[in-house]
Amino acid sequence: MLAQERAANRVGGVTFLTDFADQAVVLPLAAIVFLLLLQLGWRRGAVSWAACVAGVLGSMLVLKLVVLACGWRVPWTGLSSPSGHTAASAVVYGGLLSLLAAPSAAGTLFAALAGGCVALAFGLTRLALHLHTVSDVVFGAVVGVTGAVAMRRLAGQRPRRALWPRLTIGALVVMAVFQGRRLEAETRIRRLALDVWPLSACVEPGRLHAAQESPFEPR
Predict the structure, then answer these.
(1) In a domain, 4, yes or no
(2) What's the total number of domains in the chain?
(3) CA distance 198 to 146
(4) Residue 216 belongs to a domain
(5) 50-93: per-residue pLDDT in tens?
(6) Which residue, 43, 126, 48, 35, is CA-closest to 91?
(7) Mean pLDDT across the chain
(8) What is the 3-state secondary structure (H, E, C) of 18-86?
(9) Does residue 140 sit within a domain?
(10) 128 lies in a domain?
């Protein structure tokens, strides 16, 4: 009984952490950071932030649709559904940290390291919960870190005004308010991959019928 309680507590802790990368948290967080960057006068930073976050999330949506529908044709990749949580965490949290750095080679390296560390932390939670394969996590990490690095390179020079008190407070408030909420985006994406042509034409034979009988587990 004690061992079961400890295992349940570990799962609960991992779930608590991984939920910070759910779209229900990262989308409002991205919106608040964008508005704060504009309010602080860093328009180039705000545009870079919005473009890179949207680019990563949009890319992951497309990749998920393709892999969910056609991934069975290339089983050697080990992909089941590229990890959106890993990618989102890297570009949002890693990207936010990357804006601390100067627009230089060292700043680019810092952005890559920040995004990579965040992706590693959240990727491990996805693996611990058995929601993704290693290939899924690596794929999501590469996309997310690329977005964080691009954000630092595109954002240009920081304004002289102090950014971080407001950004930190805004981010913490959003995280506290929305943590634990879930959009269950994976379920919708999986159904979209099965229902929308031409993706549906790529689905493994017999899978459509099986999908109608089995609920999808959110990723």
Answers:
(1) no
(2) 1
(3) 28
(4) no
(5) 999 999 999 999 999 999 888 888 888 899 999 999 999 999 99
(6) 48
(7) 87
(8) HHHHCHHHHHHHHHHHHHHHHHCCCHHHHHHHHHHHHHHHHHHHHHHHHHHHHHHHCHHHCCCCCCHHH
(9) yes
(10) yes
